[in-house]
Amino acid sequence: MSHSENTPRNFIRTIIDHDIRSGKNGKRVATRFPPEPNGYLHIGHAKSICLNFGIAEDYSGSCNLRFDDTNPARESQEFIDAIRQDIEWLGFTWNGLCQASNYFEQLYGYAEELIEKGLAYVDSQSAEDIRTHRGTLTETGKDSPDRDRAIDENLEVFRGMRAGEYADGEWVLRAKIDMQSPNINMRDPILYRIRRLFHHNTGDAWCIYPMYDFTHCISDAIESITHSLCTLEFEDHRPLYDWVLDHISIDCHPQQIEFSRLEMLYTVTSKRKLSQLVVHDHVDGWDDPRMPTVSGMRRRGFTAASIRDFCARAGVAKSQNRMQMSELENSVRWDLENKAPRVMAVLDPIKVVITNWPEDRCDEMECPNHPKIPELGTRIVPFTRELYIDREDFMEDPPSKYFRLKPGGTVRLKYGYIIDYQDVVRDENGMVVEIHCSYDPATRSGQDNSGRKVKGVIQWVSATHGITAPVRMYDRLFTRPLPADGKEGREFTDYLNPESLILKPNAVMESSLASANPEDRFQFERLGYFVADRHDSKAGAPVFNRIVSLRDSWGKLEQQHGA
RNA sequence: UGGGAUGUCGCCAAGCUGGUUAAGGCACCGGGUUUUGAUCCCGGCAUUCGCAGGUUCGAGUCCUGCCAUCCCAGCCA
Fold first, then answer.
1. Confidence band (pLDDT; 50, 70, 90) for A395?
2. Does residue A563 surpass a pLDDT of 50?
3. Which has the closest alpha carbon to A266: A324, A329, A333?
4. Are strands A172-175 and A190-194 parallel, antiparallel or unpaired?
5. What's the structural domain count of chain A?
6. Which residues of A are known catalytic residues?
7. Residues 371-430 of A, Cβ under 7 A from nucleic strand B
């Protein structure tokens, strides 16, 4: 697959173009996507995936998937498996499947090299002491008392650390750089810590684990990465990235380039917060259809193509940004408009009785599966005396310009007949439970010679042939555009949208939908795009998720005029 | 009284080394088509590039000074 046709220019591609022109890296392009397996991928990761894999594709280069698994305290195989699945589902193929933990032996060797060069030392200070010696944002740090230990002593202790001779936290290995540096990352950063933890890949082979700053740059170099793309918060780490590679014997020095992370309004994208939503049961799991995770969006019904399209539209730059939900919604509408077969469903049914239609008559209406793509074929939908229409499509006291069914009104049942309002039946509370109409035999869809024109066209389902299936109507997870801005001293969970999930238990739809397979997507005419839930749908008993509504200029009008 | 970054239309975002009327997408506003108030089509939508000065024949693009926002003080990544 190629993304070049809809991939806009960005500053990273400009840099790569220059590098290729100047012959840098032998005109080779190699990227990598380096997630830590401590959570599920979200829309922000999707952007990074599209960037890294997209560049590899467009420049005939390569892109590795590399798990940055240097902290066994929070990583697990479950996350590794989920991340692999998500990337494959998004439609990308990695060249190498790598793990930083596979480089532990080499990493250890480079650490000894730094010690031998007098550029790293073991420190016995407590975590607390190291913190206070580090200084603050405005005050420089102070050297550790252990800073000038002899090289062979450093080596001996470091080997002892590896051999398990010391307790967790007793020693750390630090780079000897500059405690006076205005960049805190350069104030003798920690390279290794002792952690007696089982690692999902290396098991109990190691009791010392390397830190990110030491691991990441070397992993990139080992894999001969040319362009190491990461988000803006690592900008301050670039001097350290370069320092490590400049001081060890490795003949590759990738270029780190930072871009801004993708943020969205009305949701959160931080693993910590997403994890909190899951752990505290605010949602149904990492793949809850309201989650901005890749697996959540997949379950909601978003297509991989629509997510890729969205990321392309978002672009790549360095300014802080918050994308609007409408942009994401638009991407999936754009994709599904030309793919999803149309079908009729009624979410909140109200019965319509066609009084001049014989009790046992059933007309077979031929309905196109798509208004513009005849190749998608047609289907037969039964038209009977008793039908359901949506409650919303009938109003007793409608505002002006309401052109659906109303007292004295006329409406076309799509692909059926034009019907005229006659009467209404109420229950003991005065609630309308049935609408009586007459149909006009001369207006059968496709054979209409009546000359009648009606403005309103609504969908319907035969009361005797339709099936019932639960439909979940999803909406944004939060009520505020910036739920986590900390304003008003509130937690982001205080702004969860109580209406982010509304169940329509009585939805009625064409019987053909009974055989919908998990992940089959449809447009329910006039309502939106829906998907058969990939987990909850059973054979013959589908459960539908609303992916996104159709654009609704009537609803907009209604809101504006407070109708 | 530290360091690093960013500020171009409501939201994204092009704009290479300064040179005709400041791309494009989303949103929005008109109009047309339409048996989805959908889609589609057509038109509109920044005298101005955070602000103030300066250099220049000419600056969003160069210089100076302000202002605003974001990131950094994990033995996390």
1. very high
2. no
3. A324
4. antiparallel
5. 3
6. 36, 261, 271
7. 371-372, 401-404, 412, 414-415
Domain that holds residue A516: 271-341+469-561
> A145 or A489: which carries more pLDDT confidence?
A145
Q: A442 and A362: one domain? A: yes
pTM, to two decimals: 0.96
Strand partners of residue A30: A62
Q: What CATH number does the domain containing A408 carry?
A: 2.40.240.10
Which nucleotides of chain B have an atom under 7 angstroms from any protein CB?
1-8, 10-15, 23-29, 34-40, 69-77
Total count of residues recorded for chain A: 563
Backbone dihedral angles phi then psi of residue A51, each to the nearest 5 degrees: -65, -55
Question: What pLDDT digit, counting tens, does each position of A414-423 carry?
Answer: 999 999 999 9
What is the percent of chain A where pLDDT is above 70?
Answer: 99
Is residue A413 domain-shared with residue A536, that is, in the same domain?
A: no
Two tokens, residue A182: 């205005």
d(CA A519, CA A263): 27
Amino acid at A217: C
Backbone conformation region of residue A54, classed left if phi is above 0, alpha if psi is from -120 to 50, else beta: alpha
Instruction: Provide ipTM, 2 decimals.
Output: 0.96
